[in-house]
Amino acid sequence: MGFYQSSGERKRRIPGWIGVSVVSALVGCGATLALYPVLQNHQVAGTSATTTTGVTSTNLSAPVTNVNVSVNDAITQVVKQAVPSVVAVVNYQSTSDFFNQQSQLEQSGVGTGVLFAKDNNYGYVVTNNHVVEGAQKLELVLSSGKHIQADVVGTDPYTDLAVLRTPVNNVANLPTAVFGNSDDIQVGEPVVAIGTPMGLDFQDSVTSGIISAKQRVMPVEEPETQQVLDYETVVQTDAAINPGNSGGPLLNMKGQVIAINSSKIVDTSVQGMGFGIPSNTVRTIVQEIMQTGHATHPSLGVEGYSLSTLPDYMRPDVPVTDGVYVQSVTSPNAQAAGLKPQDVIVAVNGKTVTSIADLRTDLFQLSVGQKVSLRVYRGQQELTLTETIGAMSTQTSSDGPSAQDQSSDGQDIQGQ
What we know:
Number of domains: 2
Distance between the termini: 18 Å
CATH architecture of the largest domain: Beta Barrel
Helix content: 10-25%
Strand order of the largest sheet: 8-9-10-13-12-11
Radius of gyration: 23 Å
Structural class: mainly beta
C-alpha cells in the first residue's frame, strides 16, 4: 500500500473517489499517543467508575466536591501480553557510494511485525508486503532490543501481507500472538495498536482508540509504482496509525489480534482514520503463503462499483438501489457465464450483495474452480447466472532475501 523511504514521507496517489491521500504507515513520521477514554461501566473494556460524593439521580445540581474514578488495567494487561510477540522489521537496501563507486547496505525503512507461529526450525512473523519490498537484508528487533536476521517465506501484494521466518532459537522464549475472529468485532469497541513509529527509538509505541467501521474498501497499490493492484476490505480505527506501525497488531481487549495495521489517510483536515487488514483475511493468506510461498485469490473477472455510489447519470435502469454495478467483464469465465457490462449483481449463492465490500467478503470464502450462482439485474430483467470462479494472477516480490524461490506471473488489476 505504498512505501516510505527513511528520509521522509512520500504521499500516495489515490483515485478520485477519495478526496484525500491514503498512505502506508511505514517509515519516517513521529507519533503521538492517543489515550482511549474508557467509558463508565463499559463491559468490553472492563472498567468501572464510582463517585464518592455529590451526584445522585435525584440531586444533579449538587456541587461535586470529590470524585474518585476506578479504572481497571485492561489496556495495560493487553499491552503486557502482546508486546513480547511484536517485533520491529528493518529493511536494508543497497546504496552506491559516489566517491568509491561501491555499494553498501543501508537501512531503508522500519516497520512492525507479529510473531504468530513456531515450529521445530523457525519462528514466523507476519508483516506488510510494503515493509519488506526491495529488501536485500531484513532484521527483526525484539522488544528486548536484540537484533536477529530474517528472510522472506512469501509475499502477497494484493493484500499487502508478507510472512518472514527466523531460526526458532532466536524466539524460543517468546510467546506467539493469538488471532481473534474479525467477523465478531463491533463498531465502537476499544482497540490498541502497537508499532514502531519514527524508527527504533520509538519501538513498541502504544496507541488506543475504537473500531470506527468494520468494512471499508481501500485501494492496494504496488509499493514502487503506486499502481492500483486491487481493492481490499479493511477495518477502520481512530487509534493513531503512523508510519512505522505498518505490519503491527490491532488488538481487542482480550489481547487478540483482530487486524494487521497497514495504512492511514493523510490530509490536513483529517484525523484518526487508520486501516488494518482483518485477522480472518490475514489468517487465510498466511496459511497459503506458508504452504506455497504465495496466495491465490478467487476472482469473478469483472471490474465494478457499488451501485449506491454511482452518480445519477451512470445508474442503470434497474429496480434496486444496492448491488454491484459491472463496469467491464475481464475474464473468459465471466464472459462464458453471460455477465455483461451494466449488469448489477445483487446476490452470490443466495446471499444478498449490497456493495463491493460485500462481494469481496463473499468471494474470499470461495475457492478457485468452484461454481457460484449469481443473481443479476439486466435492466428490469432478473437473471440467474452460473460462473466458475477464476484466480487472480499471482504476483510476489522477487527482490528480497527469500526463503524459497519466488516468481512473478504478471499483474491483474481486476476489481473482483
